[in-house]
Amino acid sequence: MKIAILSTFYPLRGGIATYGAALLSALEKEGHVVKAFTFSRQYPDFLFPGKSQYITEEDNVEKIASEEVLDSINPITYYTTAKKIKAFKPDVLITQFWMSFFGPSVGTVAKLLKKDCITLSILHNVIPHEGRFFDKPFTKYYLNQHHCFVTMSDVVEKDLRSYESEKPSLVRAHPLYNHFGDPQNQEEAQLKLGVESDKKTLLFFGFIREYKGLDILIKTFDQLDDSYQLLIAGEVYGSFDSYMQLIQENRNKERIHIFNQYISDQEVGDYFSVADVCVLPYKSATQSGITSIALHFEVPLIATDMGGLKELIINGETGEIVPSATVEDLKRGIDTFFINDPQQYKSKIVELKKEMSWENFAAHLEDFIFKLKRK
């Protein structure tokens, strides 16, 4: 098949770009001809909450060749993008949806192509973590322009059905990222990051946003004894001031290591190589790409019972699920994890990794598309 993917790609950074690159590579390995189309402007700078939308010289990422064509706020480019994708004559257009802001732009491109090819959307979220007044109309418009969908958790599938009850969809869990390399030597990683080697190490990783519950984790860390240390690794969206205030008030603040910055791909392995467990104290969630990174490095997880997190984080097997984002529940989950044998988690993760490859995901996606084409 000829497959066009409209998404964020290099030189844009972030989890959606990483996902798109991995998907493109997996589909090419299946023998398909795949072409990437991306944004000439993803967000106006004043709307972007992080420091940069773009890869820097320090980032070591797969440089996917793509056409930078779609400006999210320039309607003229919606039509020129569709024209360029049509010229490729794809059998399938794959788009990604993670924020309703992109409903008009990507949705219009899909609308202009849906008579010429199958339009398929991979839905990371349907109902956003942080709501805005335009979410419902933009999301509904976007979904209406697609023939079919892929969701990565039962929760997102349920959210999809609250908008769209008829169109076919495939539910497949988020594949495990494998482009971050192998785990690093633990002692070398500890020295590089300046963390202690004799502590139980909790890791909070990824972009810092309010719904991810870092404040809950910091408060929980205040209740732990001095055998623990906490690593906070990721760029904050907005201000870090409220978190810093909690850290300064924390009786264990000397054992909180802060890396408030974008973590490049080549640095990711250092953080997971020193971690005993990755903690996701989310106040709301659908699924999380952090889960797939942790499982790739065979690091167990502790997470709140939110969204689809528990589909891959299984109590006593690949980690621990706690009932809610409260200090009491999170502390109980941390205590339970360290009472158990860490190796019991790792052995289960190794088994899971075999099922969660990108190649396996691409094969199921291919079967789904072929079934649609036969109808």
Automatic annotation (TrEMBL):
<keyword id="KW-0808">Transferase</keyword>
<feature type="domain" description="Glycosyltransferase subfamily 4-like N-terminal">
    <location>
        <begin position="14"/>
        <end position="164"/>
    </location>
</feature>
<protein>
    <submittedName>
        <fullName>Glycosyltransferase</fullName>
        <ecNumber>2.4.-.-</ecNumber>
    </submittedName>
</protein>
<keyword id="KW-0328">Glycosyltransferase</keyword>
<dbReference type="InterPro" id="IPR001296">
    <property type="entry name" value="Glyco_trans_1"/>
</dbReference>
<dbReference type="InterPro" id="IPR028098">
    <property type="entry name" value="Glyco_trans_4-like_N"/>
</dbReference>
<dbReference type="GO" id="GO:0016757">
    <property type="term" value="F:glycosyltransferase activity"/>
</dbReference>
<dbReference type="Pfam" id="PF13439">
    <property type="entry name" value="Glyco_transf_4"/>
</dbReference>
<feature type="domain" description="Glycosyl transferase family 1">
    <location>
        <begin position="186"/>
        <end position="342"/>
    </location>
</feature>
<dbReference type="Pfam" id="PF00534">
    <property type="entry name" value="Glycos_transf_1"/>
</dbReference>
